[in-house]
Amino acid sequence: MKRYKIFKLKWEIIPIIIFLGIWEIIARLNLISGHFFFPPFSTVVTEFWYLTVSGVLGRNFLSSLIRVLIGFSAGSIAGLLMGIIMGWSEVTNKALSPVISLIYPIPALGWLPLLMLWFGIGEILPIAIIFICSFFPILYNTVTGIKNVNKNYIYAARTLGASDIEIITTVVIPLALPNIFTGLRLEAGMAWRVIIAAEMVAIPTGIGALMMKAESLLRIDIIIVCLIVLGVMCLSFENFFSFLEKKLTNRWR
Amino acid sequence: MSSIQLKNISKYVCKNVNLEIFDKELLVLLGPNGAGKSTLLNIIAGLIDYQGSVFFDHKPVDQLPANQRKIGYLFQELNLFPHFDVTANIAYGLRVQKQSRNEIKARVEDLLQIMKIKHLSSYYPKQLSGGEKQRVALARVLANSPRILLLDEPMNSLDYQTSKYLRTEFKILQKKLEITTIYVTHNFYEADEMADRIAVIDKGKLEQVGLPEEIFFHPTKAVSDFIGEPNILNCDYYHRLSFLKSTEIKDH
Amino acid sequence: MKKFLLLLLIGFLILVSLGEGAAQEETPLGMAVEFTDHAACAYISLDKGWFEEEGLSLTTYESYETGMALAAALARGDIQVAYMCLVPAIDVFANAKVAIKIIAGTHKYGYGLVVNPDKVKTIQDLEKPDIRLGCVREGGAVDVLLHKVIDKYNLKEEKIISNIRRMSPPKQILAIQSGQLDAAFLPEQWSTMAEEFGFRMLLMSQEVWPGMQGSVLVVKEELIKNHPDLVKKLVRVSQRASNWVNQYREEAAEVVARQLQKAGGSLFPVEDADLVSKIEITLKVLLKSMSRLEYTTDIDPVVVQEAIDYVAQLGYIKSSFKAGDILDLSFIKP
Description:
The complex is a heterotrimer.
Chain A: H1 2-28, H2 41-54, H3 56-88, H4 90-103, H5 112-119, H6 124-148, H7 151-159, H8 164-201, H9 207-216, H10 220-249
Helix pairs in contact in A: 2-10, 3-4, 3-6, 3-8, 3-9, 5-6, 6-8, 7-8, 8-9, 8-10, 9-10
Chain B: E1 4-11, E2 14-21, E3 26-30, H1 37-45, E4 51-56, E5 59-60, E6 71-74, H2 86-96, H3 101-114, H4 130-143, E7 148-152, H5 160-177, E8 180-185, H6 188-194, E9 197-202, E10 205-210, H7 212-217, H8 221-227, E11 236-241, E12 246-251
Parallel strand pairs in B: 3-8, 3-9, 6-7, 7-8
Antiparallel strand pairs in B: 1-2, 1-4, 4-5, 9-10, 11-12
Helix pairs in contact in B: 2-3, 2-4, 3-4
Chain C: H1 2-24, E1 30-34, H2 40-48, H3 50-53, E2 60-64, H4 67-76, E3 81-85, H5 86-94, E4 100-105, E5 107-108, E6 111-115, E7 133-135, H6 141-152, H7 157-163, E8 164-166, H8 169-177, E9 183-187, H9 190-195, E10 200-204, H10 205-208, E11 215-220, H11 221-226, H12 228-247, H13 249-267, H14 270-278, H15 283-291, E12 294-295, H16 301-314, H17 323-326
Parallel strand pairs in C: 1-2, 1-3, 7-8, 7-9
Antiparallel strand pairs in C: 3-11, 4-11, 5-12, 6-9, 6-10
């Protein structure tokens, strides 16, 4: 079994290596000439090393990471709580649903100008944007998840003597987890995309700001480093929730 | 254990249903699909609201919510919690009653033994066969020692052999535990086999209530339309109930 | 398997030929300038038809908000001639590795620090935490000047940097108008314009960096290789314009005002066009502004080297290089 896994991993890595090889060759031979300066992969790696050692990458990455963690946690928790209330209580759902359906489709970045005026340019701004971009989708997925729980399980729990709170915590939420995790997984990646955009527009620190600085200095190698970091973070966050979901729900799904 | 009184119950297809179920008896609620059988069960369990009154031991329970009525309800779809294994499913009722861990452990062991499903204790519902699920559901329902048992077409999805076996087992268990039971089915032969009394219901109306023989030999017009022509063979028969170590002979 | 390899080979060949093809295209004479009176020579030459007189036909003439935007366009290959600030030219040469040469200067100085006199009375006041300081993005000449100011007056870098609001000059003017900035580093004519809104000129580039090179005339190296005659003509026109600006200052201001107004409406991206059209660049402002520049095509290689070294020190380019690599002063008449 172990041998098979290693064998499989090799096959996943080989296309990546080929891709990097082609990149290196094309850039070195300057095949795409004249229009854009196209650094070879090796230059990107060197720049990555330099940025890490000098602490520039670490500092900016940490700024972005903290904002994402705070904003995403706050938004998810709020979305979950609100979602549970709205999923369970028909009255609350009917009251709030129309308003939420109006606000939900607004893209998170659309809030940027408004938030810039309300909060000015500080740490609150990116955190608020990520809060919004996490809150609504997770709220929506939680409500859906809870509503999709088969009513019969709730009846069964009731006849077994469970109170509403017990039913919510022991039956409804666990059964709604697949939907909830879908929301968390998607939004974890989304949070990174949003923070970059917010930092590009308004904030002086963070990966997005570093990218803007690199852009005005025409340092494409730095931009590519930032893009790679961004990609890795998106993937990691998404995979983390995927892993958590599997761990919590695989036994019975 | 309780007796049940239904007075002027109206909901959906049921109109002014009056019915008494005696303490410790197994009453079969017999009728075609859509007759209102499940509706009555849900009303007794307190899962839906209704017009009329329900009494347990002549005490009104209309204001009592479903989770306080001490009912054991075996749903037609069983509704085993998919995210709990067999042990956790059975223990659920005890958990929410805030029993101690040791008490819960002992009781679950007991039930696993009685239902002969000890080997399934860490399986999940998705891994069980129909008959196994049936037994787990029954164990779960009995865990809290309910005073009333409601079973909604419990043998519906099972094959003939399993069904017959479980029916026999259940009948014995019910007599042993002395729980007032309402058993819903649309199958007359099943009704005949299980019931102390049968209540025939059609289109929301109670057509006839009585002993199986009464229903069988003296059905009302409506009832006879439903149950059709019986096949009667006069004979003796001998039935061995091995673990009770006694024999019972019935003859017609 | 064979078919796949064949396809791969064909794909590879197509890529190579595309690259070759792009290099062999005819290079039209596209010109870019910054949207400031730094490019007065260019605007005047255009207005007076001096380019055409010399037989230079411009296929495009674009104005850019900032030196960095111009530098990016230069890197992309849209332009062959540019009047741009020295620092972005250094960036484009060192970072984007675009083969350009500086063939002449256009002016010296032309940058300033303007402040709200109520909030900022001295340079040190810029360190105060509630001060909002406007500046263009990293890599611009103004940004480099800001760092020079920090060095010269021993200011605390982190404090200053944390006060900076990065925006383009037109946005800064609007921000000043609406009271959202307390101070701003701006290139001319924008810095003089800020004075119209109650701001005071606290520092000029002359006081911070003696001999500071403002903008330069830049061409792509292949233009020098393929059409050295055109390049000579470009320098001649610039020199003529430079002399004329110094002789007929008022007329020059009028022409520049007109050209800037014209350029502002149509050549900016949509959101900024609206901003820019709201700002009126008056004759009075331009006269005052242009008096703060020193228009000359002379360029001092020592100053250029100073700039290169400083920019390398700031980390904007990876390493310093010899000024001689980027300069080609053979076309300026001796």
